[in-house]
Design a protein that fits this description.
Blueprint: H1 2-16, E1 30-33, E2 41-42, H2 44-51, E3 65-69, H3 74-84, H4 88-100, E4 108-110, H5 113-122, E5 126-130, E6 139-143
Parallel strand pairs: 2-6, 3-4, 3-5
Antiparallel strand pairs: 1-5, 1-6
Helix pairs in contact: 1-4
Length: about 150
């Protein structure tokens, strides 16, 4: 129960603390996954379903674990806009509502791509969005046949 409350407060605070950062438009986004359970290829519709918490298990039954950059980072803002089609505040409210309703576990948020990459590499079933993937133990997922969005 304490963890759920902590996650709700964290998501709420992320929405309040989102500063106005200038981010590079059309910066490449790379979808990475753990080598266990996460498929090597997806289409964009499947990716959105996974990242929105609509698909909660991989085909082998393993739980989907979502890893995202914080919405106050350039990559986080790009992810909000290009994948979720939401503002950072809207995305935070979206996840807050789902967590509060008990429908999903909150995504894990990171401030650096290297932290996100390490988490995904170490967590079976994890999927994340970054701007660079240097960890050779990560699976780079092709979306509609492309390695960059």
């Amino acid at each position: 129960m304490k963890q759920i409350i902590f996650n709700i407060v964290l998501i709420f605070l992320l929405g309040l603390l989102t500063p106005s950062l200038i981010c590079a438009q059309d910066a490449p986004l790379i979808v990475v996954g753990n080598n266990v359970s996460v498929p090597s290829e997806m289409d964009f519709k499947q990716l959105k379903s996974v990242l929105r918490g609509e698909k909660m298990r991989w085909n082998d039954g393993k739980q989907v674990i979502i890893a995202l950059m914080k919405s106050n980072t350039p990559v986080g803002k790009e992810t909000c806009t290009r994948i979720y089609n939401m503002s950072p505040n809207e995305l935070n409210k979206y996840f807050l509502a789902l967590v509060f309703q008990g429908k999903i576990k909150a995504p894990t948020f990171f401030t650096s791509p290297s932290e996100l990459n390490a988490f995904v590499a170490e967590t079976p079933g994890a999927i994340g969005v970054v701007d660079s993937a240097h960890d050779l133990t990560l699976k780079i997922i092709t979306i509609d046949g492309e390695t960059k969005l």
